[in-house]
Amino acid sequence: MASNETGDGTTHEDTTKPLDGVETEGAKKGVKLSKRAKREQRWEELKKRQREGRREEKKRRDQKKREAGIKLRREKVLLSDARASKVCVAIDCTYNQLMTEREREGLGKQIKYCYAANRNSPHPLQLYLSGYSQGISETLSKSAPEHAK
CB under 8 Å to 148, separation ≥6 — which residues? Predict the structure, then answer.
């Protein structure tokens, strides 16, 4: 903005737009940036309010369940309880040499699925792997390296 001097010795800011009606490029970018910043700020505030609303709703639902006598969380079953089970399941891995790489990967996924399902079961059973070889070990270590030891 340009400052103009009046006849009485005082100055004032010129707040008029350019005569041709074209704004400068920098002014447009500044307006766009400020609009974007405002929009992002409104979005963040909306997300925060929604998150708080969901938390409050969950607290209300949990309170109703407590009053009704419903347990909120499922009790964990220890795998040591599987030892008490009389049911045993054995997975035979001796055909590893006859399998293709894809079949070995499928077998590894099935073994992991069985283990996870057994772990989450209310009545776990004894799970055994027979013929466990280096090939199966490599297959399991590809997808879960921390559990292949």
Answer: 137, 138, 140, 141
